Amino acid sequence: MMARALMGMAAALALATTVPVMPAHAGEKAQGALPAPLHAQLDAQYDRVIADLIRITETPAPPFKEAERAALFAQMLRDAGLDDVSIDAEGNVLALRPGREDGPVFVVSAHLDTVFPEGTPITVTREGERLLAPGIGDDSLGLASLLVWARLLEANGLTTRQPLLFVGTVGEEGAGDLRGVRYLFTKGAYAGRIGAFLSVDNADAGRIVNAAVGSRRYRLAFKGPGGHSYGAFGIVNPMGAMAEAVRGIHAIAVPTEPKTTYAATVVAGGTSVNAIPDLVTLDVDMRSGDPAALGQLENAVLAAAAAGVAAENGARSTAAGTVTLDPQLIGDRPAGKTPPDHPLVASAMRASHAAGFAARLDQSSTDSNIPMSLGIPALTIGTGAGGGRTHSLEEYLETGRERFVAGLSVGLAIILDHAEAAPK
Ligand SMILES: [Zn+2]
After folding, report:
1. CATH of segment(s) 214-333
2. Distance 202 CA to ligand 1 centre (A)
3. How far is the CA of 418 from the centre of ligand 1 (A)?
4. Cβ of 25: how many Cβ atoms within 10 Å?
5. Can 2-212+335-423 and 214-333 be said to share one CATH topology?
6. 139 C-alpha vs ligand 1 centroid, how far in Å?
7. Which label site among 108, 147, 193, 414 has the fewest CB atoms less than 10 Å from its CB?
8. Ligand 1 centre from 397 Cα, in Å?
9. Whose CA is closest to 64, among 175, 143, 201?
């Protein structure tokens, strides 16, 4: 209703018959730019988008506590004119916009969660054309972009061939481990019915992520009998096993292409300077764009940890008990790729380039990891006019009008093109 009130029903109806929507798969699909009347409408929505952006940003969404922002986003989707809005069992917000055909859905998504813990003060401030606040770009901007695209589709009475499913996901960041998008693709009501996925998750409208860097993260628990540092001297020590494991892990050779990495990152354990510990834990982060390389690395890391345990058990007395290894998988983001020659990639490159951005392909770890790993075409794109200091309290967005609107146009142009939009 809001959108119609803003634009005027008559204008919207008039536009429905006059907006030249790009013809589906017609020989020279324009140059991918948003049609001028829609671009003008997007520009007219600038103040509204900024207001939405501020409202979303100032509604906290700490890891695993996205419910308040989810409720707000669900209401905003209803206000944008979408009727079928719900929140699934994992906490994702879903809004279905039916298509001309009842086939696989095209998901357009942004993430609800931030990296900032509960209690972080979040007030948006302005410095010239810059807006500053934790999480304003990552990913409040993506959520606000979805809203304006939905409003314009509704106001112009545009239909798409596939149903569009607008989604706000939970758990994209850090320990969330992609729990929202994983649920969407494997357990939710639309599991098995998603044909393509577009995640909007950065402020660079030239950056098109078509490759998913996968990660496997372990907490390796080394357990032993423990004892007095003086009285029990000579018994096995989990600390020794862990140290040997780190040495072994850091001797693993990995490919440089695709970039494959590992790091021992966090250690914990021990109770007192005069006690041989009964527990030491080591966190290890592993990443690669190649699922096979990541699998080999994982096997090598676990083998190095096991070798560390064996070495310690061989080096000292096991009379009071042996050292054992308990590896817990604490992070799992699968690798994958959408081929550079896929039509969705071509559509995104055209749209970004046509809007004046330096369109280029990139790789990252985002919500698209899940569909890419399942072989479902997926991209993560940027929107808006750039920003920086992501994941810090000094995060900011550039909001200079012309460039910002150009950035917003990219995602909408991709949707119109890929989902074959047409007047009702
Ligand atoms: Zn993000």
Report:
1. 3.30.70.360
2. 6
3. 23
4. 9
5. no
6. 5
7. 193
8. 14
9. 175
Instruction: State in Å: Cα 154 to ligand 1 middle.
Output: 27
| Short-list 377, 333, 344, CA closest to 180 | 333
**Ligand 1 centre distance from Cα of residue 243 (Å):** 35
Task: Using CA atoms of 60, 211, 246, 303 in order, give the dihedral in degrees to the nearest 10.
Answer: 120
Distance from the alpha carbon of residue 92 to the mean position of ligand 1, in angstroms: 15
Ligand 1 centre and the CA of 173: distance in Å? 7
From the CA of 138, how far away is ligand 1's center (Å)? 4
If you measure from the C-alpha of residue 141 to the centroid of ligand 1, how many angstroms do you get, rounded to a whole number?
A: 10
State how far the Cα of 164 lies from the Cα of 348, in Å rounded to an integer.
17
Q: Where are the domains of the chain?
A: 2-212+335-423, 214-333
Find the helix or strand (DSSP H, E) in which 306 lies.
Answer: helix 291-315
Please, which residues have CB less than 5 A from ligand 1, an ion? 138-139, 201
Three-state DSSP at 283 gives strand
| Rounded distance between C-alpha atoms, residue 420 and residue 418, angstroms | 5
Distance CA 279, CA 271 (A): 9
Spatial CB neighbours of 314, under 8 Å, sequence gap ≥ 6: none
Dist CA 188 CA 180 (whole Å): 10
Give me the CATH topology for the region 2-212+335-423. Aminopeptidase (3.40.630)
333: tokens are 């983001």
Please provide the distance, in angstroms rounded to a whole number, between the alpha carbons at the two ends of the chain: 18
Q: 144 CA to middle of ligand 1, Å? A: 13
Pairing of strands 194-200, 378-381: parallel
Tell how far the Cα of 22 is from the centroid of ligand 1, in angstroms: 30
Q: What is the pLDDT along the chain (424 residues), one digit of tens a residue?
A: 334 333 443 344 444 444 444 444 433 344 689 999 999 999 999 999 999 999 999 999 999 999 999 999 999 999 999 999 999 999 999 999 999 999 999 999 999 999 999 999 999 999 999 999 999 999 999 999 999 999 999 999 999 999 999 999 999 998 899 999 999 999 999 999 999 999 999 999 999 999 999 999 999 999 999 999 999 999 999 999 999 999 999 999 999 988 999 999 999 999 999 999 999 999 999 999 988 999 999 999 999 999 999 999 999 999 999 999 999 999 999 999 999 999 999 999 999 999 999 999 999 999 999 999 999 999 999 999 999 999 999 999 999 999 999 999 999 999 999 998 888 7
Full-model pTM: 0.85
